[in-house]
Each structure stands twice: as structure tokens, then as C-alpha cells.
Amino acid sequence: MITIPSIKTAIWLHRAPTGELLSNVPHTARHHSPNGFEIGYRGSGPTELALNILNQLLPVPRRPRLPEVTDQWTPDDWKAFDHWQQSIVNLPNGGSVSRNAWELRCSFRDQFLSHVQLEPGQSRVLDIDQIAHWIERELANL
Q1: Do strands 10-15 and 21-23 pair parallel, antiparallel, or not at all (unpaired)?
Q2: Are 30 and 48 in contact (CB under 8 A)?
Q3: Rounded distance, CA 98 to CA 88, Å?
Q4: pTM value?
Q5: Which residues touch 15 (CB under 8 Å, ≥6 apart)?
């Protein structure tokens, strides 16, 4: 029996007997790969997985609470709205991710996913604390 950890504690990757890559990462941001998640190389599948992992850990910031009518916005309201807009990336399919997730996706792929090889039946667990430390270091360099 396979025990799947919570995404809050670990990223779980498993190669099914069919060859399909299974994961505990929700596929909420669709942009790079027409075939979904993958690992073991520097292409669209691992980049898609990296973007979705980071989308869970660096979510889109909440839109600031502002008056509904823009005529009532103050200069500070416009500044807050502009800051919020610059902190997200809108994807062509209508979804969005945080700018930080977008900026770090390829580096994350190269650091954590592109070298991982799994045979059918094998699993790999990536530690969230290790990923969080990596994110902290990378964000300091953006």
C-alpha cells in the first residue's frame, strides 16, 4: 500500500506501472505541457510540475480590498492595485500564478525535478522544508 503525504509536508512523485507520473500536486496551472506532469529532463512536463508545485507554495496574492467604482479610488488605491497586478502572471488559458512562482519555475525544475529518474513502481518524496529554504534563498536573489 502506498501512503501519500500531504502537500503541506512533502511533494510525492510516483511512477505507476503504466509509466504515468502520479503526484500529490494539484494540476491547477496549465501552461507548459499538453501531456501533464513529468520528471527526468528539462522540458515541458517537468516545467509544468515545477510551476504547479510553486503555485501551491507561492500562491497568487489576494486582490486588495478597494471601492468597487474606480472613480472613488485614491492614489494609494491605484498604487495597491498596480502592485497587485504586477505580482501575478495571467496564463493564456485564463488561470494565473504568482510572479514569484513564474520566475522560479525553471530554476526549481533544474534543482529538484530534471535529474529525478523513477522506474515503474518507484516513488520519490521531496521535503517541503528543503524546498522552502531553497525558495527563500532564490527570492532573496530576485
Answers
A1: antiparallel
A2: yes
A3: 4
A4: 0.87
A5: 21, 22, 118, 119, 120, 121, 122, 123
